[in-house]
Specification:
Length: about 170
């Protein structure tokens, strides 16, 4: 059984001004390459905190015992200077809130720091070994899920918990 083919209406016939399938496909694939520009992130510094750094010459003594604390080891500290950090409260409000609460509660006091690089970052070690009772694990803190510029500060928890992640 065959059906007669009817020609398409004249307004659907290809013309020189009409798009072909290939040009339509090309134009749709090119349109996905350049997404519309998004608004830049709000990197306004909303808060500033400071940390004072010192050197403790006796902290790494080889005859140190587990019961020694920073207060007993570091009777003489030599001040190095103050580090002022600008916090991006509009970009990562949860992280800024967590960090400010940790700074205000002196959670970072007597933390061993390895390196401070001007206008970049500072690298610190964990507060101590959990198996000998040198560190209290932090409560599960809410984290921001936004992707932040690598130069921005990151709050990391050195303990294992259900919701902990860096960044």
């Amino acid at each position: 059984m065959s059906f007669p083919l009817t020609p398409p209406p004249p307004h659907l016939l290809p013309s020189s001004a009409a798009f072909t399938r290939r040009s339509l496909l090309l134009s749709t694939s090119l349109s996905t390459i350049n997404p519309p520009p998004s608004s830049p992130p709000d990197t306004t510094v909303t808060d500033r905190i400071f940390m004072d750094f010192s050197i403790c010459p006796a902290y790494n003594k080889p005859d140190r015992t587990v019961s020694d604390t920073v207060a007993t080891l570091c009777t003489e500290m030599f001040p190095l200077g103050r580090l002022i950090l600008g916090l991006y409260g509009h970009l990562v409000p949860t992280t800024v809130s967590n960090f400010k609460s940790m700074v205000n509660s002196y959670s970072y006091k007597n933390t061993l720091v390895h390196k401070v690089l001007h206008r970049q970052f500072f690298l610190a070690e964990r507060q101590g070994r959990m198996e000998v009772g040198k560190v209290r694990p932090l409560a599960d803190l809410p984290r921001n899920v936004e992707v932040v510029d690598p130069k921005a500060f990151r709050l990391a928890n050195s303990t294992r918990c259900s919701r902990c992640s860096v960044g």
